[in-house]
Amino acid sequence: MLVRADLNVPLDGETITDDGRIRASIPTIRNLAGRGAMVIVCAHLGRPKGTPNPKYSLAPVAKRLAELLGEPVEFASDVVGESAQAAMAGLRDGQVALLENLRFEPGEESKDDAERALFAGRLAALADLYVGDGFGAVHRKHASVYDVPRLLPHAAGGLVLAEVEVLKRLTEDPARPYAVVLGGAKVSDKLGVIANLLTKVDRLLIGGGMAYTFLKAQGYEVGKSLLQEDKLGDVRGFLDEAAARGVELVLPVDVLAAEGFAADAAHEAVDATAIPADREGLDIGPRTRELFAAKLADAKTVFWNGPMGVFEFDAFSGGTRAVAEALIASDAFTVVGGGDSAAAVRRLGLPEDGFSHISTGGGASLEYLEGKTLPGLAALEDDQVES
Ligand SMILES: Nc1ncnc2c1ncn2[C@@H]1O[C@H](COP(=O)(O)OP(=O)(O)OP(=O)(O)O)[C@@H](O)[C@H]1O
Ligand SMILES: O=C(O)[C@H](O)COP(=O)(O)O
Asked: Which parts of the sequence bind (2R)-3-phosphoglycerate (predicted)?
């Protein structure tokens, strides 16, 4: 049985700094192994772009998976090669193996259908059943997510089913005001969802690395902050659209401007309209924290994706903490989505049960909320196609 999981966890060298996604994957793997299946788990880590790279090896994840399962996990040092074949051949009923990072193979993410299908065929040949349980990756039209379930009898895993159930509540008649808070660093991915979100929400709060493209689009300088120059035109369109629809688009009024990207970088709070040219915005400032908390206080539904700053550095974690605390204090239906956002909540020592739900998917949840058909979910719903 091939299980597509999302084990894309943050690493510091070989140390896993947050194992939330591995923990979230355990119940499905344990359930299947417990019922006697030979379980081959496949997953990606980071964005190695089609070539093997030890920095993105899943080896540390295999070790942690074994610890959490309390059972040995055979780790294959390739994806569909000799090591994977040997791991498959050696599996006994109830045993678990993990393949090396799917994204070491160019076929996994290829835009070319034939190339993807070829790789999918090799992956599918390792098993005779497929379980899609990698919720965080269901928005990717990748071989292991989209093509393999077309080749094998398939089912959705428990994690995917549980995530979809919660997100449905956000799409079907959410209690209003409905606010979405966006941040993080995957700016180009996430700018794409804004156009659709503007048709659904009452308030959109933008912080994190995403905010600087908005500030620049309004004509302000952002110094060395994260900037998606090629999206400035789109962002100007979002600002107009929000105004036309009466959606409140709330941007930072101040930021922590740092001398460089480092934990101990000298920094000060400056107006968002006056970021010095040699500085980099690494967190929202104190006035913005208050503003965002006020905008969240009377919301009845809140979805939050993406940290407000570089929370991995203590000095720049205050904005993320403030948003998290505002959600914890509110009586709204609150959902946090995203590997890093969930990791931030745990790293800051905040109670996970302070939120209605913490989702393992960032981009995946956002695209679901947009009302899009997600390739990985569509593939699980489709009738099986003969290979
Ligand atoms: N102002 C900023 N400048 C640079 N990086 C930032 C800034 N604000 C936040 N980040 C970084 O954004 C990263 C998280 O962004 P990402 O978009 O991946 O979040 P996520 O949606 O929770 O995760 P995923 O989409 O992977 O599930 C963190 O590592 C954080 O340091
Ligand atoms: O971290 C995530 O959001 C998922 O694991 C998907 O990763 P990706 O954005 O690199 O496709």
From this structure: 21, 103, 140
Instruction: Assess contact for 370 and 193: CB atoms under 8 A.
Output: yes
Rounded to the nearest angstrom, the distance between the alpha carbon of 376 and the centre of ligand 1 is 23
Residue-by-residue DSSP string for 140-177 = S--IIIIIGGGTS-EEE-HHHHHHHHHHHHHHSS--SS
8 CB near ligand 2 (under 6 Å):
yes
- pLDDT cut 70: percent of the chain above it: 98
In this predicted complex, what is the ipTM?
Answer: 0.93
Torsion angle defined by CA atoms of residues 330, 364, 101 and 50, in that order, rounded to the nearest 10 degrees: -130
Query: From residue 279, how far is each of 42, 117, 270, 284, 312 by CA, in Å?
Result: 41, 46, 10, 14, 19
Q: What tokens appear for 85 in the block?
A: 């074949």
Considering the entire predicted model, what is its pTM?
0.89
CA of 10, closest atom in ligand 1:
29
pLDDT of residue 387: 31
Chain mean position to CA 2:
22
Rounded average pLDDT over 286-304? 97
The kind and range of the H/E element at 214 are: helix 211-217
Amino acid at 59: A
Which helix (H) or strand (E) covers residue 318, if one does? helix 318-329
The response to whether 46 counts as a known ligand-binding position is yes
The one-character DSSP state at 384 is P
Q: Report the distance separating Cα 72 and Cα 80, nearest Å.
A: 21
